[in-house]
Amino acid sequence: MSFTLYNSASRKKEAFKPIKNGEIGIYVCGVTVYDLCHIGHARSAIVFDVLVRYLRARGFKVTYVRNFTDVDDKIIERAKKTGEDTATLAKRYIDTFYEDMLSLGVLDADVEPKATEHVDDIIDMVRSLIEKGFAYVVDGTVYFSVEKFDSYGQLSGRQLEEMVAGARIAVDEKKKYPMDFVLWKGAKPGEPKWKSPWGDGRPGWHIECSAMSCKYLGANFDIHGGGRDLIFPHHENERAQAMAANGVDFANYWVHNGFLTVEAEKMSKSLGNFITIQDALTLYHPQELRLFLLSKHYRSPLDFSRSAMLETRSGLIRIYRTLQRAEEIIGPNKHDTNTAFLSDVGDNDFKNHFIHVMDDDLNTAAGLGLLFDKIRNINKLLDSPAQKTDITSQLAKERKALLECSRALGLLECEPSYFFHNIIKAFPEVATEEIKKMIKERQEARKTKDWARADSIREELFGKGIILEDGPQGTSWRLRIEE
Ligand SMILES: [Zn+2]
Q1: Mean pLDDT in the chain?
Q2: What is the pLDDT of residue 377?
Q3: CA-CA distance, 419 to 285, in Å (whole number)?
Q4: DSSP 8-state symbol, 412
Q5: 396 Cβ partners below 8 Å, 6+ apart?
Q6: Would you give the end-to-end CA distance of the chain in angstroms?
Q7: HSE on the CB side for 137, CA within 13 Å?
Q8: pLDDT-flagged residues of the chain (< 50)
Q9: pLDDT value of residue 427
């Protein structure tokens, strides 16, 4: 089977064919740098990080472009509040973005263009859209005329008439048609501005991605990605601008990751349930976040909850415990430097199976399932009675296969001892509340002599890597890895 991807444009899975044999160009919409990144951003960053890692591991030469939107209404608004100029504010949040990504093990993109550094490219594209009759100027502001572009709405599956009927757009007298959108904004006093043929102003939001993706990947390139919320209007507009300006297809595959909720609620400032990456990293190990964020298929909704994180932690501890036991017998793993480590796997059943599920629209959930199966197999090997036969070569082979597949997911890259050192440090905050609750429940059960219930709570916690100890002071708990 070859690599397949769900294409949001066709609304089905398609066999992936790169434009240039063996090479892939990927553009992903990055962040608007006006605030700290939250765990929803982490999901998107990790999903596309894994897409790039996996395709490279399979032997493709990938060019990955991820932009920064560093001029925009939100940035201007925030800078007014903080009293900074927009460039200083943007720079500050670009720096924290890099810190977050480094902590999460997200690789840098090959090109990380900023809108403010591509104003000339943007102006060129806007000029070409005006010349071709797709855009018009009113009082120093340039609009894209959606009625002129035949397939407007095709990516998001919307009809123009429905959009107009359903839209709650502020009436803009200058627009010829309600769905027309801004390519170039005439300058307002006090806002950042650049010179243009239409007067001083700044780019509209959508145009930067059309201009920068085509500049670095060519007018027609392979994959365009981003969060689902970007399909409309951002990606619809990007597509319209680029295709109208260049007269060729834009991205061949549109890939969108699903939403992330927190304790079954949409993340929002008003609900106060915004979890920044920085906050999350004070509670969880970066590998736990990555394992959790890959635990569901990238298109599925995913719910971030304490209990899910606790489960993730116990799974990861189980894996690292096995790796630690293996290390005691065969020594530390040596990472090889081959980047295309999944391109030719011969008849290795495990790796072939892993590739089979990952080739199916990057099914990381199934891939992780295989990693856990492998851990069980390695544990059996480690537990084999008296180790009658020499298990070292078998163990080394199994561990190598496991670590190569997990490397494609950006997982299990730390030494077991290092992982345990960090996770113990990170542990207390997170699960304490949950564990206390269960201990209390167990005490209640014991009071009413419901021994079965009390035992099952103890076992459940044990399964999560937690050991209960009853003493004169009451019940305390410790991590199983401290044994
Ligand atoms: Zn974009």
Answers
A1: 91
A2: 95
A3: 8
A4: S
A5: 330
A6: 45
A7: 15
A8: 429-430, 482-483
A9: 52
Cβ proximity of 202 and 192 under 8 Å: yes
The predicted-structure confidence for 109-146, as pLDDT tens digits, reads as follows: 999 999 999 999 999 999 999 999 999 999 999 999 99
Q: What is the DSSP letter of 276?
A: B
- Residue type at 240? A
Alpha carbon of 213 to ligand 1 centroid (Å)? 9
Residue 473: the pLDDT is: 78
| 8 A C-beta contact, residue 432 and residue 476 | no
Query: In sequence order, which residues have a C-beta less than 8 Å from that of residue 389 and are 6 or more positions away?
Result: none
Are 293 and 42 spatial neighbours (Cβ–Cβ below 8 Å)?
yes
Query: Are the C-beta atoms of 113 and 216 separated by less than 8 Å?
Result: yes
Give the integer Cα–Cα distance in Å for 216 and 237: 19
DSSP 111: B
Q: 205 CA distance to ligand 1 centroid (A)?
A: 8
Smallest CA-to-CA distance from 226 within 237, 234, 216 is with: 234
What pLDDT, on the 0 to 100 scale, is given for residue 116? 97
3-state class percentages of the chain: helix first, strand second, coil last, to nearest 5:
50, 15, 35
AA letter at 224: H
* Structure confidence by residue, pLDDT tens digits, 444-475: 999 999 999 999 998 887 766 677 888 887 88
CA distances from 45 to 170, 234, 287, 290, 421 (A): 33, 18, 14, 10, 26
- Going by C-alpha positions, the residue among 282, 375, 367, 281 that lies closest to residue 323 is 375
Dihedral angle sign, alpha carbons of residues 305, 308, 314, 315: negative
| This prediction's pTM | 0.88
**3-class DSSP assignment, residue 38:** strand
Say how many Å lie between the CA of residue 428 and the centre of ligand 1: 39
The DSSP line for 137-181 is EETTEEEE-GGGSTTTTTTTT--HHHHHHH--PPP-TT-SSTT-E
Within 13 Å, how many C-alpha atoms sit on residue 225's CB side? Answer: 29
Q: Residue 29 C-alpha to ligand 1 middle, in angstroms?
A: 4
CA 326 to ligand 1 center in whole angstroms: 45
Q: Which two tokens stand for residue 218?
A: 């060519």
**346 CA to middle of ligand 1, Å?**
39
Give the Cα separation of 59 and 43 in Å (integer).
25
